Amino acid sequence: MSALVLRQGALARSTLLSRPIVGTASLLTRGVAGPSRRAFSLSARARIQADKPKQASLALQDGVRQREERSENAGQVVGEPGKGVEGPHYQDQIPMAENVLTDTNITGAWTMMNPIYTEAELDTVQVVGRPPITVADKAAHGTVKFLRKCFDFLTRYKAVEIPQSVLQQNPIPIAELRAKGQLLSDQKWLFRFILLESIAGVPGMVGGTLRHLRSMRLLRRDGGWIHSLLEEAENERMHLLTFMTMAQPSIITRGLVLAAQGVFYNAFFLTYLFSPKSAHRFVGALEEEAVRTYTHCIEDMEAGLIPEWKDHPAPRIAIDYWRLPSDSKLIDVIRAVRADEATHRFVNHSLANLDQKKDFNPFALVEANAETRGAKWGFTREESANFAKEQQQKLIQAAQDQSPAHQQ
Known about the structure:
Keywords: Electron transport, Iron, Membrane, Metal-binding, Mitochondrion, Mitochondrion inner membrane, Oxidoreductase, Respiratory chain, Transit peptide, Transmembrane, Transmembrane helix, Transport. InterPro entries: AOX, AOX_sf. One of its GO terms (biological process) is alternative respiration. Its EC number is 1.-.-.-. It comes from Kwoniella shandongensis. It is a single chain. The protein contains 17 helices and 2 strands. It has helices at about 25-30, 40-50, 60-70, 120, 135-155, 165, 175-180, 185-200, 200-220, 225-245, 250-275, 275-300, 315-320, 330-350, 370-375, 380-400, 405, and strands at about 5, 365. The model is unreliable at about 1-40, about 50-60 and about 90-100 (pLDDT under 50). Strands 1-2 form a two-stranded antiparallel sheet. Helix 8 (about 185-200) packs parallel to helix 11 (about 250-275). It has a domain at about 125-155 and about 180-400: Alternative oxidase (Ferritin, Up-down Bundle). It starts with a strand and ends with a helix. It is an all-alpha fold. The protein is globular.
């Protein structure tokens, strides 16, 4: 997968830079509508071409923006105002070759972007963590550690490394290890996944909701945050739906999900309302634990410790969502889920380092490449600023290179 993945809305997947970049990227350089020939009124077209400062992404007029930049503790604002900073609109893209909404031969059309991974990219995911620095960081990590212990107790999970001497036995005494609590059965793994994903889908929706309301309340645009947060919530929901195809939760499991969501949603809502930075740090730490969990499961599968899942076919919903080969196995799905969790880890730690009121979402136009998301805990604020500027310049240059005037 290319290091530049253009963020698209409905119908879009991972768009490589090798494809013609039009639409919003072109608007950045030409100030007119892309190939979709969207109809603008004369007055609207004039406003778009003028690119008036008052229509900047965060709706900050020049005087207001200069005043904020000169204020105490003000630093470089991540991202710059202008057209396209919040990501392209799907209607501004080149029409796709097939109609993915009606052609039954095309796999399901997902309304929000989701990563599509290569085999090499899946191998880059590592268990990494960001050391807590501030008091808020330590509180977020401490809360996650406490919740992890409660969750482990509830699901009877133990992060025990099975000795090589045991793994070399033929056959491996799986039943004995499970009886000792050193291994989870396939059903217990599913129970853990379902509880985990039913909670993991909450933060993105809460954050997106509160930023949505704030945008309307202040009559200002959001800088590309809302869409990324809603994508995260949708992605976690797809994880849950994938595992739900393999198990039917009991009434007890459904009750636990209901209770956990009721408590967690309201607690996270209040946290995000008063300290969104701490909320994102909490999610980043939570995703660190999710990567550890899925890594442990993958290692058990590769060691033959979950024989029920050996050569288990991938659910159809997962094949459609991640665009997996039709003969993919369950382990391929779990590796894709782990890569998604690594992305959430990277994004939330990066967002936690930003100014929550002024900074643009550096990943609105372009995501960091999969290798970076898999091996790095996140970007510092300075790295986010440099990344946003660099990628925007690359997109502008790509649009200029593919313009008719340049090709003549």
